[in-house]
Cytosine-specific methyltransferase (Undibacterium baiyunense), 359 residues
Amino acid sequence: MNDETHTKLRVLCAENNVSMQDFVVQNLQSAIESNTTGSESFRFIDLFAGIGGIRLPFQELGGECVFSSEIDKFAKLTYQSFYKDSPHGDITKIAPVEIPKFDLLLAGFPCQPFSQAGHKKGFNDTRGTMFFYIENILRTHLPKAFLLENVKGLRNHDKGRTFNIIVETLESIGYKVQTRILAARDFNLPQNRERIYIVGFLSEEHANRFAFPEPIPKTVKFGDILEKRVDPKYTISDKLWSGHQRRKEMHATKGNGFGYGLFNAKSEYVNTISARYYKDGSEILVEQKGKNPRKLTPTEAARLQGFPDQIVVKAKEVGVSDAQLYKQFGNSVAVNVIRNIACNLVRAMLPETSRAPAP
């Protein structure tokens, strides 16, 4: 730096009451962020959005959500409170041409039975299912890439036929498709949640650059997500606890392991949280010394899925109940898994310029 530039910098810092070191650090950071999210920004849509678990990591990487859709009114409340963006409603009522241009389609779509008649590709096999609307949007807009998420059982649904139709349909549109089952417990979430992920690229070059993420080092156990002070209302009643124990004994006599799941702070991971968790909490009960076990709090349910605590705070501010929050987190995605997929996907989709940071 020459003397003239140094003098100008010193004067500018004095006028702004900031040290030269802080000024340089702040501006370097700004330049780095501009380089990683400015020219490299991409546009995406969030379908069957729930509370935005798939959206979050892509937004963190500089993506702009230009359209979202969710039918459940309570999930929409949580989504809007957190993202300040209200999703459109029923996707079946929205024409693909009404959706703005985008680069990437994201969807955690429901799995419904596909037609049993014949084996035809495309609309004939998918009409009447929610996947049909994804297919229609992809055919209309031909975005660079997509990420779909579903339950692990999709792979074997209808003896594998449903999954084969989905993959063949996506390939018939022109996408190079890759699929993988990934577990939340392998991405630093203390939950045994396995889901299937389907990624596709129009460009063969982009597809060749993509690989699903490998498991990351484990540093979090169940106790790390538990709150230190918990309202007694989350402790289950004597009647409910007796019912859980009775049902577990009944299942044991039949030779199966069905029943409640009891865990403590030392547990490495817990069962998968489901949308029915609000009913009795049976799949994940937290051990308590000297009293009945308790359910997770909504904040703990959020952490189990990799969401920030703030999403619960914001949702409660607009009147979303604990029961609805349990359903929403049970229906959502493991955010840590999506974050790791997102980093690889964005790097592949923006190969020339992408500087997406590692998770």
In short: The beta strands are 43-47, 64-68, 104-107, 145-151, 176-183, 194-201, 262-263, 285-286. The first strand starts at residue 43 and ends at 47.
